[in-house]
């Protein structure tokens, strides 16, 4: 599965207290990244602003 490379821009972010770059399993790393994205969208933030920040 190939996804947009923008998801790897900043892997230093933390989701639920776990630093994404420390997660060894690529699938779990992607899940945590998407979890953060969904949380930001649920807060009503604009997608373009979220992706610039991440």
UniProtKB/TrEMBL annotation:
<dbReference type="InterPro" id="IPR023204">
    <property type="entry name" value="SP1917_dom_sf"/>
</dbReference>
<protein>
    <recommendedName>
        <fullName>DUF2200 family protein</fullName>
    </recommendedName>
</protein>
<dbReference type="Pfam" id="PF09966">
    <property type="entry name" value="DUF2200"/>
</dbReference>
<dbReference type="InterPro" id="IPR014580">
    <property type="entry name" value="UCP033199"/>
</dbReference>
């Amino acid at each position: 599965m190939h996804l947009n490379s923008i998801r790897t821009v900043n892997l230093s972010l933390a989701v639920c207290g776990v630093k994404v770059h420390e997660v060894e399993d690529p699938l779990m790393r992607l899940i945590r990244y998407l979890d953060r994205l969904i949380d930001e969208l649920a807060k009503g933030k604009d997608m373009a602003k979220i992706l610039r920040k991440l």
